[in-house]
Design brief:
The protein has 486 residues and is α/β, with parallel strands linked by helices. It has 22 helices and 16 strands.
């Protein structure tokens, strides 16, 4: 069929016009019947968002994806192009993607009237049928809908009421396409009003005269919840005209979050081959985002994007790589001390409330990391305050006794692996603690480090951070030393 280059050849091929929403519906039905994935690479939405989205597309609805930032709203919209036909015919030279069998514009109608079956036809690929516009306060009606072009009117000697003097905006030129407006609430209310007739009747009103253009467009809008920002909101009449509103959400479990981060993080091949990131490190990294989404220091209406974990993983690889170059090592394993390198990825992705501003961005980031380590620790090991209430030996007794004797453990971040591991191995009781769990032997140093950090956050030990160096000691000893100094 794509060999047809004229209207006559197109007719002989058996082509029949089809609306874009019918096109998407038919292709979606075929995918579902063949049990083929529709939105591959989207994790965590299989039982929530994707079924709602499929139902909306089967219903031929315009769609509003509503959710906090970093919830794959735009990605979902872009993936809808896979439900379009590979190619569609358009009249060659038409700026409105006129269907040769059902021309829409004056240009298309006149050309078909003049040339008949010799009307030239070209084929538009699905990749060219996606138009995206970020809503900003400076967007005008002319940008979206169009405006009268006085130069064209003067050149063609036509009145302003003639459609041929119109310079069409993005929406009319998206005829037979998917049109996406991101951050819809940022559009000024008067601009949102201009979408009313397009969504419902297909009318365009420009400079006081009405142009009947039955536009064929699949609209997709994205927005944060209305209480997220004071910049604006979606006006009620417009929401009423958008048939399906679908709520998105963040990953609900660590495994889903890790899958998203693995897929989206841009890791150099050389980094991936030479650097080992243990699963416990990946777990803690994902817990940082989850902890941030409930933190009292962070504005929960703003949300914490999945991009925090993605950029944090990229920074983590780079932190390990930098340490490798410093120590002239060929390979390395990530350690918790490397998490100091992901602080910039955290501070740039969260919006602090007043209490968070008082704490300071850096301290809030360190607290999030500390709580994530603690949560991962408690998912594997017993709480040190609870072991004394149960029968049996205290798994932390050797560690407590070691630090109670006045020992101090210092862990500089850039220390070579051999020396770093030797310092951790000097703490008695850690091997026994880890041996009671199914932990890979090669990752013992990471778990030992986690135990020290977690015990410090649980007030069993004291932790100090000075110039990239963590120091662990006994809290009572530190208190007595302070009294002696006084």
């Amino acid at each position: 069929m794509t060999n047809a280059t004229t209207l006559g050849a197109l007719k002989k091929s058996g082509y029949r016009p089809k609306s874009i929403k019918q096109e998407i519906r038919d292709n979606l039905i075929a995918r579902l019947q063949n049990r083929e994935p529709v939105f591959s690479g989207i994790y965590g939405f299989d039982d929530t968002v994707i079924p709602d989205l499929e139902r909306a597309l089967l219903s031929k609805h315009n769609i509003l994806l509503l959710g906090l930032r970093g919830q794959a709203k735009t990605r979902l919209a872009r993936m809808m192009t896979s439900l379009l036909d590979e190619y569609i015919p358009v009249i060659d030279g038409s700026e409105l993607n006129d269907d040769p069998m059902e021309p829409l514009s004056v240009f298309g109608k006149n050309l078909v009237r003049e040339m008949g079956d010799e009307t030239p036809v070209k084929w538009l690929p699905r990749s060219a049928r996606y138009v995206e516009k970020l809503a900003t306060p400076d967007v005008t009606v002319a940008d979206l809908i169009g405006d009268v072009d006085p130069i064209k009117a003067a050149t063609l000697k036509l009145p302003y009421s003639d459609e041929r003097v119109i310079h069409f905006g993005l929406i009319p030129r998206s005829h037979r396409c998917i049109f996406v407006i991101n951050e819809l609430p940022d559009l000024q209310p008067r601009i949102q009003v201009s979408l009313f007739n397009i969504l419902q009747e297909g009318d365009l009103q420009i400079r006081g005269f009405t142009t009947r253009l039955p536009l064929d467009i699949q609209f997709v809008f994205t927005a944060n919840p209305e209480d997220y920002t004071h910049r604006g909101s979606i006006i009620t009449p417009l929401k009423d005209r958008i048939e399906s509103q679908i709520l998105t959400h963040y990953p609900e479990d660590i495994e889903t979050a890790k899958a998203i981060t693995r897929q989206e993080a841009r890791i150099e091949k050389a980094q991936a081959e030479r650097i080992d990131i243990p699963e416990v490190i990946r777990n803690i990294l994902e817990r940082i985002s989850m902890v941030a989404r409930t933190s009292e220091f962070i504005d929960q209406k703003s949300g914490v994007s999945a991009r925090l974990s993605i950029t944090a993983l990229e920074n983590l690889y780079s932190a390990v790589e930098r340490r490798m170059m410093y120590n002239k090592a060929e390979n390395a394993t990530a350690r918790l001390a490397d998490f100091l390198g992901i602080v910039p990825a955290i501070t740039g992705k969260v919006e602090l409330v007043y209490e968070g501003e008082l704490e300071g961005q850096y301290n809030v980031a360190l607290q999030l990391i500390g709580q994530a380590i603690r949560d991962e620790f408690l998912s594997l090991f017993p709480h040190p305050d609870q072991v004394g209430k149960k029968k049996g030996p205290d798994p932390y007794d050797a560690v407590r006794a070691f630090f109670a004797d006045g020992h101090v453990v210092e862990l500089p971040n850039d220390l070579a692996d051999e020396r770093f591991h030797a310092v951790l191995d000097s703490v008695p009781g850690l091997d026994r603690l880890l041996g009671a769990h199914d932990i890979p032997r090669q990752h013992y140093p990471v778990y030992k480090e986690m135990v020290l950090h977690a015990l410090a956050d649980l007030d069993v030990l004291t932790k100090e951070l000075t110039q990239g160096r963590f120091a662990f000691s006994d809290p009572l000893g530190d208190m007595l030393d302070g009294l002696h100094e006084n």
